[in-house]
């Protein structure tokens, strides 16, 4: 199935007032550019802000983005039309993921529902055939509503004590209701893919799913300056076999999708808007299968600012800033094939993650080895910026 590239579809509903940063590939400059997405087109602001991380680090990124005049490189619709790899004209620009030097971090087990599913994965040891029976047993012991339980509280410790006494404790419950959040590195710097391109699944995985999430943009001094959308593609069978396989379950070619654009905070869009966001998910399969899901930040167990504080502090710094996946409450259990096996991807699935104030991120699922290879790294970015020096506006 082709990937939809309609500009009106991917933009935030209140696009007219949004400060949106993106990145594009410019073949004429043989490198990426930081761009402002405006009503009258896409404007290259790299002369003012060579990297997305530098723009995010400005005292007021939204104002800085609006003030940068930039060079108009075309209409958003034209760039979108040229973004899907099938039929792309390599002589014309296309969209990239809207981040560059920021470290890509992710928080896990931040919602009660997904926490229980992680416990089920662990006990099933990656076997989806066992999941239904284990799900019933785990919910009998733990219950289904832990959303009001504050992680690290005395009440949470009591729940832990009860579970330990019944031999039902789990490492996932530890990070779900214990004092310390699970924060891990999702993918290497510059490896994320953007909207309207393929996202990757390890070919050996037979139980996997999308994870629709809000992704915060954070500066080197810990300021939360904006947000975007992400799909934290997850291999449930790999992680279920062993938590030590987390990196293999999470980090494969094209398995980190971020976009379509970073929206910077301003008077009309703040962290409080993020705290109230409902994230929708739609999966359309090539065989006609349709899956709908949702994740509400109002149900998160840890406040976004607390997760950021556990990520950057005196013990851990990020000189170029970082982005942070906030986790998801979405855990698909709808059967796609055999009864009791739940959901898993097939090649060709179209996955759309959406929320009104951030727009829509759409990717087609393929095996990681069949996605575009990741070939442009940090040294290449430095070389491209050095080539560009002196090429800007006269």
UniProtKB/TrEMBL annotation:
GO terms for molecular function: hydrolase activity; metal ion binding. InterPro entries: FAH, Fumarylacetoacetase-like_C, Fumarylacetoacetase_C_sf. The keyword Metal-binding applies. Residues 224-365 form the Fumarylacetoacetase-like C-terminal domain. The keyword Hydrolase applies. GO terms for biological process: small molecule metabolic process. Keywords: Hydrolase, Metal-binding. Pfam families: FAA_hydrolase. PANTHER family: 2-DEHYDRO-3-DEOXY-D-ARABINONATE DEHYDRATASE, FUMARYLACETOACETATE HYDROLASE DOMAIN-CONTAINING PROTEIN 2A-RELATED. Belongs to the FAH family. This is Fumarylacetoacetate hydrolase family protein.
């Amino acid at each position: 199935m082709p990937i939809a590239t309609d500009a009106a579809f991917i933009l935030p509903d209140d696009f007219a007032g949004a400060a949106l940063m993106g990145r594009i590939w410019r073949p004429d400059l043989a490198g990426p550019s930081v761009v402002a997405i405006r009503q009258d087109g896409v404007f290259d602001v790299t002369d003012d802000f060579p990297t997305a991380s530098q723009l995010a680090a400005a005292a007021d990124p939204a104002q800085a983005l609006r003030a940068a005049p930039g060079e108009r490189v075309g209409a958003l619709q034209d760039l979108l039309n040229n973004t899907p790899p099938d039929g792309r004209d390599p002589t014309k620009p296309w969209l990239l993921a809207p981040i560059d030097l920021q470290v890509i971090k992710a928080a896990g087990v931040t919602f009660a529902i997904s926490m229980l599913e992680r416990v089920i994965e662990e006990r099933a040891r990656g076997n989806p055939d066992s999941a239904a029976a284990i799900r019933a047993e785990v919910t009998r012991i733990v219950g289904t509503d832990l959303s009001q339980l504050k992680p690290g509280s005395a009440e949470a410790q009591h729940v832990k004590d009860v579970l330990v006494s019944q031999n039902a404790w789990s490492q996932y419950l530890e990070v779900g209701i214990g004092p310390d959040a699970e924060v891990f590195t999702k993918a290497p710097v510059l490896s994320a893919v953007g909207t309207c391109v393929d996202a990757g699944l390890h070919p050996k995985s037979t139980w996997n799913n999308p994870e629709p999430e809000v992704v915060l943009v954070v500066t080197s001094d810990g300021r939360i300056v904006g947000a975007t959308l992400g799909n934290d593609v997850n291999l449930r069978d790999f992680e279920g076999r062993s938590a030590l396989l987390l990196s293999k379950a999470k980090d494969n070619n094209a398995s980190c999708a971020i976009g379509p654009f970073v929206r910077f905070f301003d008077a009309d869009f703040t962290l409080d808007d993020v705290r109230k966001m409902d994230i929708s998910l739609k999966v359309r399969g090539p065989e006609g299968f349709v899956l709908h899901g949702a994740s509400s930040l109002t149900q998160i167990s840890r406040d976004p600012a607390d997760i950021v504080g556990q990520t950057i502090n005196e013990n851990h710094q990020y000189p170029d800033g970082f982005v942070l996946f906030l986790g998801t409450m979405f855990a698909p259990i709808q059967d796609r094939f055999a009864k009791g096996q739940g959901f898993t991807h097939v090649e060709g699935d179209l996955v759309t993650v959406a929320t009104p104030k951030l727009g829509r991120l759409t990717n087609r699922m393929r095996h990681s080895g069949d996605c575009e290879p990741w070939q442009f790294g940090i040294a290449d970015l430095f070389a491209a910026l050095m080539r560009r020096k002196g090429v800007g506006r006269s």
